[in-house]
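Category: protein sequence paired with discrete backbone structure
Discipline: computational structural biology
Format: plain text, a pair of labelled lines
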Amino acid sequence: MIQRIQSVYLALAAIVAGSLPFVFNLWKTTENEAVFAIDKQYLLVGFIISAVMSLASVFMFKNRKSQFIINRLNIILNFILLAVFMYSSLTTSGEMEVSEKGVGILPIISIVLLVLANKAIKKDEDLVKSVDRLR
């Protein structure tokens, strides 16, 4: 069922991971050059895998347990991407005229959407179990 709320959350997470890293810069270097996901291969692969996992999870609505597990793996992948952003932020040389060292917020948005989707999946699973008990 595509019309469930977790499908909306997962589709938004796929959009955040699949398209926004190519539109918005992830951080700026000391030379004030914007760094996009296309510039770093490991970030590109991480975002694409995250988007594919979110999209695959949308269409696994009949198997809620595997959908839940895939979302958890996707959350872990987004935490790894966030750690890479933190590491690159801490190792970028610092204070110039404009000190703009930032952490990409896209994995954080994706993590929040995936957690909301997992809460909705868990709610559906609990509802199905309660109905099965009544039978």
About this structure: The beta strands are 27-28, 34-35. The chain is about 70% helix and 5% strand. The mean pLDDT is 83.
